[in-house]
Amino acid sequence: MMITRRRLTRGMIAAAPAIAGMSRARATPSFPTRQVRIIAPFAPGAATDTCARIIAQRLGERWGQPVVVENRIGASGTIGASAVARAEPDGHTLLLGTVGTNATNASLIPNMPYDTLNDFAPVTLFAVVSMLVVVHPSQPIHSIADLVALARKAPGGLNCGTAGVGSSPHLAALLFESLGKVKFEHVAYAGVAPMIPDLLQNRVNVSLGDASSFLPHVRSGALRAIGVTTATRFAGLPDVPTVAEAGVASYDAAAWYGVLAPAKTPPQIVTQLNHEIAAIARMPAVKQQLEPLAATTVGNTPDAFAAFIHAEYKRWGQLIRDAGVQVTQKS
Q1: Average pLDDT over residues 52-72
Q2: For the whole model, what pTM was predicted?
Q3: CATH H-level superfamily of 131-228
Q4: CB atoms < 10 A from the CB of 53, how many?
Q5: So what's the pLDDT on residue 24?
Q6: In this structure, which topology does domain 36-129+254-323 adopt according to CATH?
Q7: Which stretches of the chain are DSSP H helices?
Q8: Digit-coded pLDDT (tens) for 247-277
Q9: Is 219 helix (H, G, I), strand (E, B) or coil?
């Protein structure tokens, strides 16, 4: 078919608006257009801060744009999380969220300053941290079965130390009591560090906490690890069974860290962030960086992370209400 010059000219004129539109689309600045902030709602040096800085460094390298970590601490992480919930939903302010800020605090703290399930756009679950059940080696407790038997024999006779009321280890202990049908005397500390000396001196009979805190003492023989709280075994102690496989059916508890944006962040930006951060989570070098935290990287989809948050919110909320646990919000 022959195309005349007149017909070709008419076609070019008709196509001009579409071509102009494509040019404008290409000219639109891509994300990010300025410095990106990742809010870490806990102190420098904490696991949350470590994860945030790893992500910030790698994103900065990939984008050629500055990515900074800002520590907004206080009120069990709610100050930092609230700042992100109120931020402009353009992807330039992100939260390194935790099981506390984005699942359990809603049931623990009265008058929360944000809506846990509706004020954020989940991006990806970055990492999950195993916890260990440990005892002093002088205790006649060599397994989860031994612990359950002894605790049932004398309800409240064993004390259990944790990093504080409402902390992940405390809730993990409550879950153990509920599923194992046992009762401990809870001893709440202001973090793991002040608890370790009492645990090493056998003033604390049993404890649950992040594997990274206990690992040096387990490897030295000063503590005995009898169970891993997650659904799968911890690679650093492959011979230690999970609590579930050791007899407490359905038991699964972990600390976790994920990236969230403010609600109403454009889906295309959430998708871009997800692709970038999930790729970072898969990097062998990043996995190695997180080994000291006993962390396993994940990097799932926004929908999968949202479903995970809803499940965590529901199950921990029910446990907290059943146990009547509440913490006083402090700044």
Answers
A1: 96
A2: 0.87
A3: Periplasmic binding protein-like II (3.40.190.10)
A4: 18
A5: 37
A6: D-Maltodextrin-Binding Protein; domain 2 (3.40.190)
A7: 5-27, 47-63, 78-85, 99, 105-108, 144-153, 168-180, 196-200, 211-220, 267-281, 284-290, 302-323
A8: 999 999 999 999 999 999 999 999 999 999 9
A9: helix
